[in-house]
């Protein structure tokens, strides 16, 4: 006997009481059988949507796919809503995305036959305290053998809905299953169809792969079955690109190994994606071959490329910004001889205190993922200790003890470029020595600056800003000039 939550049992009970059939179907039965907690519960029934709605007053219904969502009292997120879908069949897959026309099916068997993989088409019937499994495609056998196999003809299934190819890889990563040979060959053959699927649907599967324990294996599989070439061609480009004496792996292998480490450490979704994409700029910036090949500015090109990829896939803006920032900054210097407190404050200013720990995680993943972790961990620890030391220090104009209004008042001037110039100069001084961030000191300094001509003030400000410009911006310029990378 499998444990079915009370909320789901009640839904089934109500449907049966009204004279309908009701089965638990899909991913939740699969998860139950392998002992995983289902993420959501789906019920299939021969009741029509209007009939379901009549039975469950607390529902909402989106007409398109015959699914009525019923709200429960549960606080468990997987049980707050239960989806009840009328048996469906007879699909018309006009654009290979969503069925163009959906028709009711008469039986559960017919409904199951239009679904994707054998392990997903086991139905569970609860009747008078007994349970009965309906398993027309031998899903249990495949579950035991850990195999993902398309229902009936895989070519047909993937031509009906190309997203199923991504779902196969995603399930493989989540469950640790292999893809059965004929199904796998059908994915390779039909991979190009994924181009017709919306980026949002692809992204959602990708997120599930990256979040899974086998994220690295999932990415490798995406490459092997040719899907990656269509989803992230920029990343696939690293395949076979050798590096230099500091690396044992090719660019592609290194990206995947970094993701693997980030996953093992259970780093956040954003750090995992940053690890996967952190060297995506290398194929384009590679100069020379063999042990001395270089990749100057790959972090800048990589950040730009990652932005293109992530925006194309419609990742949330906040995640995009964070990942792009990490990739851009992942080459920070942490050689105890060269790092100064001022430099660390600048790093903190560029990265933001809220992102610095994630940046260190990325660098760690990068280091381990190289296969020859040459830089000793104590160096990174040293830098981390320095960050702790300066974490509370003022690193941005906002953190100064006086603001633009104070400057205008002190100097008796109107808003204008002078105010910004003065702020830049003050910040530069405070980055050098945070004890200068007192009202008295800064006010004194402002009065001194007030003695200068507009021209002199602008000159000092420019110098301050220039020294503040990070080396990467300079590299950025250089790369543009040299390699015409857009
Ligand atoms: P999870 O809920 O863990 O993300 P799942 O397999 O339950 O995975 P759902 O999107 O909840 O996925 O779908 C529920 C069920 O509906 C699946 O198990 C499968 O039987 C069927 N299904 C979902 N998407 C498709 C599809 N694109 N083509 C065919 N059947 C599908
Ligand atoms: Mg599900």
Automatic annotation (TrEMBL):
<dbReference type="GO" id="GO:0016779">
    <property type="term" value="F:nucleotidyltransferase activity"/>
</dbReference>
<dbReference type="InterPro" id="IPR006674">
    <property type="entry name" value="HD_domain"/>
</dbReference>
<dbReference type="InterPro" id="IPR043519">
    <property type="entry name" value="NT_sf"/>
</dbReference>
<comment type="similarity">
    <text>Belongs to the tRNA nucleotidyltransferase/poly(A) polymerase family.</text>
</comment>
<feature type="domain" description="CCA-adding enzyme C-terminal">
    <location>
        <begin position="385"/>
        <end position="443"/>
    </location>
</feature>
<keyword id="KW-0479">Metal-binding</keyword>
<feature type="domain" description="HD">
    <location>
        <begin position="254"/>
        <end position="359"/>
    </location>
</feature>
<dbReference type="InterPro" id="IPR050264">
    <property type="entry name" value="Bact_CCA-adding_enz_type3_sf"/>
</dbReference>
<keyword id="KW-0808">Transferase</keyword>
<dbReference type="InterPro" id="IPR032828">
    <property type="entry name" value="PolyA_RNA-bd"/>
</dbReference>
<keyword id="KW-0819">tRNA processing</keyword>
<dbReference type="GO" id="GO:0000049">
    <property type="term" value="F:tRNA binding"/>
</dbReference>
<dbReference type="Pfam" id="PF01966">
    <property type="entry name" value="HD"/>
</dbReference>
<dbReference type="GO" id="GO:0008033">
    <property type="term" value="P:tRNA processing"/>
</dbReference>
<dbReference type="GO" id="GO:0000166">
    <property type="term" value="F:nucleotide binding"/>
</dbReference>
<dbReference type="Pfam" id="PF01743">
    <property type="entry name" value="PolyA_pol"/>
</dbReference>
<keyword id="KW-0460">Magnesium</keyword>
<dbReference type="Pfam" id="PF13735">
    <property type="entry name" value="tRNA_NucTran2_2"/>
</dbReference>
<dbReference type="InterPro" id="IPR032810">
    <property type="entry name" value="CCA-adding_enz_C"/>
</dbReference>
<dbReference type="Pfam" id="PF12627">
    <property type="entry name" value="PolyA_pol_RNAbd"/>
</dbReference>
<dbReference type="InterPro" id="IPR003607">
    <property type="entry name" value="HD/PDEase_dom"/>
</dbReference>
<keyword id="KW-0548">Nucleotidyltransferase</keyword>
<keyword id="KW-0175">Coiled coil</keyword>
<feature type="domain" description="tRNA nucleotidyltransferase/poly(A) polymerase RNA and SrmB- binding">
    <location>
        <begin position="176"/>
        <end position="236"/>
    </location>
</feature>
<protein>
    <recommendedName>
        <fullName>HD domain-containing protein</fullName>
    </recommendedName>
</protein>
<dbReference type="GO" id="GO:0046872">
    <property type="term" value="F:metal ion binding"/>
</dbReference>
<dbReference type="InterPro" id="IPR006675">
    <property type="entry name" value="HDIG_dom"/>
</dbReference>
<dbReference type="InterPro" id="IPR002646">
    <property type="entry name" value="PolA_pol_head_dom"/>
</dbReference>
<feature type="coiled-coil region">
    <location>
        <begin position="454"/>
        <end position="481"/>
    </location>
</feature>
<keyword id="KW-0694">RNA-binding</keyword>
<feature type="domain" description="Poly A polymerase head">
    <location>
        <begin position="22"/>
        <end position="149"/>
    </location>
</feature>
<keyword id="KW-0547">Nucleotide-binding</keyword>
């Amino acid at each position: 006997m499998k444990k079915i939550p009370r909320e789901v049992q009640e839904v089934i009970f109500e449907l049966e009481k009204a004279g309908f059939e009701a089965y638990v179907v899909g991913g939740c039965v699969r998860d139950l059988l392998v002992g995983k907690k289902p993420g959501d519960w789906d019920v299939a029934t021969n009741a029509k949507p209007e009939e379901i709605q009549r039975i469950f007053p607390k529902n909402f219904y989106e007409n398109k796919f015959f699914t009525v969502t019923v709200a429960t009292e549960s606080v468990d997120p997987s049980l707050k809503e239960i989806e009840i879908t009328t048996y469906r069949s007879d699909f018309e897959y006009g654009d290979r995305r969503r069925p163009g026309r959906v028709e009711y099916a008469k039986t559960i068997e017919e409904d199951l036959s239009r679904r994707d993989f054998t392990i997903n088409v086991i139905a569970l019937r609860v009747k008078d305290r007994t349970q009965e499994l309906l398993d027309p495609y031998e899903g249990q056998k495949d579950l035991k053998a850990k195999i993902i196999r398309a229902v009936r003809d895989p070519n047909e299934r993937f031509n009906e809905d190309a997203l199923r190819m991504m779902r196969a890889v995603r399930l493989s990563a989540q469950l640790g299953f292999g893809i059965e040979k004929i199904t796998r060959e059908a994915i390779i053959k039909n991979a190009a169809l994924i181009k017709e699927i919306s980026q949002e649907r692809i992204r959602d599967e990708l997120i599930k792969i990256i979040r899974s324990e086998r994220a690295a294996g999932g990415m490798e599989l995406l490459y092997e079955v040719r899907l990656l070439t269509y989803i992230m061609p920029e990343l696939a480009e690293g395949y076979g690109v050798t590096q230099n004496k500091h690396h044992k792996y090719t660019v592609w292998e290194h990206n995947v190994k970094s993701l693997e480490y980030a996953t093992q450490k259970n780093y956040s979704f954003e750090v995992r994606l940053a690890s996967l994409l952190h060297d995506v700029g290398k194929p384009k910036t590679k100069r020379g071959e063999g042990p001395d090949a270089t990749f100057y500015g790959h972090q800048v090109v990589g950040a730009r490329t990652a932005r293109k990829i992530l925006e194309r896939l419609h990742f949330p803006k906040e995640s995009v910004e964070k990942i792009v920032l990490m990739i851009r900054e992942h080459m920070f210097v942490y050689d105890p001889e060269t790092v100064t407190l001022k430099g660390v404050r600048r790093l903190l200013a560029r990265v933001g205190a809220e992102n610095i720990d994630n940046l260190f995680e990325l660098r760690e993943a990068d280091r381990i993922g190289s296969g020859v972790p040459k830089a000793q961990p104590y160096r990174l620890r040293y830098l981390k200790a320095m960050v702790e030391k300066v974490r509370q220090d003022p690193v941005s104009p906002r953190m100064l003890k006086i603001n633009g209004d104070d400057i205008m008042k002190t100097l008796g001037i109107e808003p204008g470029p002078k105010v910004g110039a003065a702020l830049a100069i003050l910040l530069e001084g405070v980055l050098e020595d945070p004890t200068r961030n007192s009202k008295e000191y800064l006010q004194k300094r402002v009065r001194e600056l007030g003695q200068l001509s507009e021209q002199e003030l602008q000159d000092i400000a420019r110098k301050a800003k220039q020294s503040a410009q990070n080396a990467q911006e300079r590299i950025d310029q250089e790369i543009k000039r040299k390699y015409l990378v857009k």
